[in-house]
Amino acid sequence: MLDLKEYGIVMWPEEKIISFREKLLTWYDENKRDLPWRRSKNPYHIWVSEIMLHQTRVDTVIPYYERFLDWFPTVESLANAPEERLLKAWEGLGYYSRVRNMQAAAQQIMTDFGGQFPNTYEGISILKGIGPYTAGAISSIAFNLPEPAVDGNVMRVLARLFEVNHDIGVPSNRKIFQAMMEILIDPKRPGDFNQALMDLGSDIESPVNPRPEESPVKDFSAAYQNGTMDVYPIKEPKKKPLPIYLKALVVRNDRGQYLLEKNESEKLLAGFWHFPLIEVDDFSSDNDQLDLFSQVKEESRAFGPSPQESFEQDYDLEVNWSQQVFDQVKHVFSHRKWHIQILAGQVTETKQFSDREIRWVSPQEFSDYPLAKPQQKIWQAYKTALEDEGLQ
DNA sequence: AACGCGGGGTC
DNA sequence: GACCCAGCGTT
């Protein structure tokens, strides 16, 4: 067992712990939100909600949760779902490896657990995509096991309660909060205790603009008593996303279809479909209209083919490029910021690609294809520009 | 231990 | 624009 004193934390005496549990759970009973997954004790339902809630807000999750259980009502149906349907169910939620891991775990449950959801912390932990937080959440909520569920909210609340001088963003410090929770957790109502701390952390004890005077446990909080609420939790700021410059190629054929390509990489937006994209160093040279003379032409030769040229080569198409200038599309990921310029054009042929991961798709069929946010923004910008053109 | 992995809310 | 977030897997 970890010695909390070594980390400068003085744990409360037993009477204070019991009093804290009572205060917190009484507040929870009176103030807890009526959420769809709180009406169920089905471990599959709890699991789906917990995975969706990773780095994602409750209001965003609710409609996805309802639809997901509608599409995949059982572990077995999830295990057998086709990839496109899986991605479509998650489209717009982000962190798409979550749903891939969930399907892998559903298959584990079918093969290794006879279709029965594991009912121990160790069994749950074996499942793909389930780490210590989620294992604790499912164990405590669905099976009433006294396991802590330490997420960002819990760490923030505990850091303020005990003035923890350790960075909550450092993974190895998680064990400190885990140890605190093993002592604090209410053995009779572990699931409610975990959820109460999370509710408290997401609203009253929110990271920005907290309302500590409204906290049901402010009398227990060292930071509140000492006026150090703004000091805790200790957390290093994140790094800024790296800017990436891309040209998106929106190309229409005679039938009004557009070229879409499947992302075969296993990394960012794996498995999603996208308008052809080409990465460039930056947009500086071609933004300057006055430079359209020999100097720039020589430079472009030195730097190889233009995006238009390399696109025509890659896809073996002759494109009638539009002169229209489209708005630039921007999209921020956790670690990248995409700046996208749209190039549009038409082809008079309807060449079929033997490689079936490149297709001509009509706008009516877009809804059959998983399309991530940047592609949706590109399509919106393209359509808007065409409409504006039509009004002239 | 650091990084890769989305998207949306809030100020 | 800058901040935040109901994490996990990989390297």
TrEMBL record:
Keyword annotations from UniProtKB, A to Z: 4Fe-4S, DNA damage, DNA repair, Glycosidase, Hydrolase, Iron, Iron-sulfur, Metal-binding
EC number: 3.2.2.31
Cofactor annotation remark: Binds 1 [4Fe-4S] cluster.
Keyword Iron-sulfur: yes
Listed transmembrane segments: none
Similarity section: Belongs to the Nth/MutY family.
Official protein name in the record: Adenine DNA glycosylase
Species annotation: Streptococcus jiangnanensis
Lineage: Bacteria, Bacillati, Bacillota, Bacilli, Lactobacillales
